[in-house]
Amino acid sequence: MEDLEQTVAVGPAPKVETVFIGGGTPSLLSGRAVAALLEGIRRRTRLSPGAEITLEANPGTTDSARFAEYREAGVNRLSIGVQSFDDLQLRRLGRVHDASLARAAFAAARAAGFDNINLDLMFGLPGQTPEQALADLRQALALRPEHLSWYQLTLEPNTRFHAEPPPLPGEETIWEIQEAGLELLQAAGYRRYEVSAFASSRRRCRHNLNYWRFGDYLAIGAGAHGKLSGDGGVVRYWKERHPERYMESPRLRHERIVEESKLPLEFLMNALRLVEGVEEELFEQRTGLPLERLEPTLSRLRDLGLLARERLRATPRGFDLLDEILLEFDHE
C-alpha cells in the first residue's frame, strides 16, 4: 500500500468507482490476500459501495473454493483468459491450460456465485481457418458469459511470436472471420459497444469504459500504468516493471506530461473505439482544449461520411477504417 499512498498523500482521498486486479496471474493470490488488498484501497480512497471490482483469472489456477473466497473478499466480476478452446492453439500460445480446464474454471466461477463474467477469446491464431475461429466463438457463447472480449491476435514485442512470427491468416480470412463472428454475437444477444468488447444485459465493463472515455485512473503494482489530469495537464505515469526492483522502491514512479499537440490524438484513439462514441463536450473536459482544435479534419471526415454529425463517433463505415481516420488527426 506504500504505492497507493504516494498518489493519495496530496489532497482529498480520490473517489474510486472501479478496481481491476490484473496483469500476471492474480488468481494465484489467496482470497485473504485479495481481501487485504481491497481493504487497503478502502482505507485510502473513497471506494464506491457499488464499485465494479474485477479480477483476472487463468484457467487451471483456481477452483470453486478459491472463487468463493474472492466473492467473500468483495470481487464481483471475473475475467477469465480462455484465449481458445482449441488445445493445439493453446499449446502454440504457450498457455498452461486446455479447453477442459477453461470450461471447468467457468463452471467453478458460476458455482461460486459470480453473475458477471468476461471471457477473453482471440481469433486470427496461427493457421486458423474461419471454421475453427467460429467454432471457438460458438463454444464461448454456449457458456453464456455476460461479457466477451473477442479480439485479433497481435504480435507483441519481446515475445517468441514477435521474434519468430508464425504463419497467420491473411487479411481476407480475418475479414471473413470478423463478419461471420459479428453475426453470431448479434444473434446470441451480445451488443458490440467497443471494437473488441461485447456485452449482454447492460454488462459493459465500467473499468474499461473509463479508459475509452479518457478518464483518470490510478496505478498500483509492478509495471502498472496510470493517468492523472490537473492544472499541470495530463500526466501518464508507470511503475517499475521488474518485481524485485519495484519492491525495493514501491513509491518510485516514472512519468511524462502528454504534449498538448498529442492530446487530440490520444483522446480520439480511445473515444472512437466506442460504437456510440462520446459527447463533444467530453473532448474539452478531458483535454482542456476547444473542439475547434480538431478542425478542419473533423468537418472533412464528417463530409466524407466517416464520422457522425452528432457526437464524436465513427459511422459504421468509419468504424471499419479507424486506423486511417486516426492518422488524419496525427498532425493536430
Task: Describe the protein.
With 332 residues, the chain is of the alpha/beta class. It is built from 15 helices and ten strands. The chain has helices at 2-8, 31-44, 64-73, 87-92, 99-111, 130-142, 160-163, 171-187, 206-212, 243-248, 263-271, 280-287, 297-303, 316-319, 322-328; strands at 15-21, 46-57, 77-83, 117-123, 147-152, 191-194, 197-199, 225-230, 233-239, 253-257. The strands form two sheets. It has a seven-stranded mixed β-sheet. Helix 2 (31-44) runs parallel beside helix 3, helix 3 crosses helix 5 (99-111) and helix 6 (130-142) packs parallel to helix 8. The model has no long low-confidence stretch (mean pLDDT 93).
Count of discrete alpha- or pi-helical segments spanning 4 or more residues: 15
Overall, the morphology is globular
Unreliable sequence segments: none
- Give the name of the CATH superfamily of the largest domain: Aldolase class I
Give the rounded overall mean pLDDT: 93
- How many separate structural domains? 2
CATH structural fold name of the largest domain? TIM Barrel
Distance between the termini: 39 Å
CATH class of the largest domain: Alpha Beta
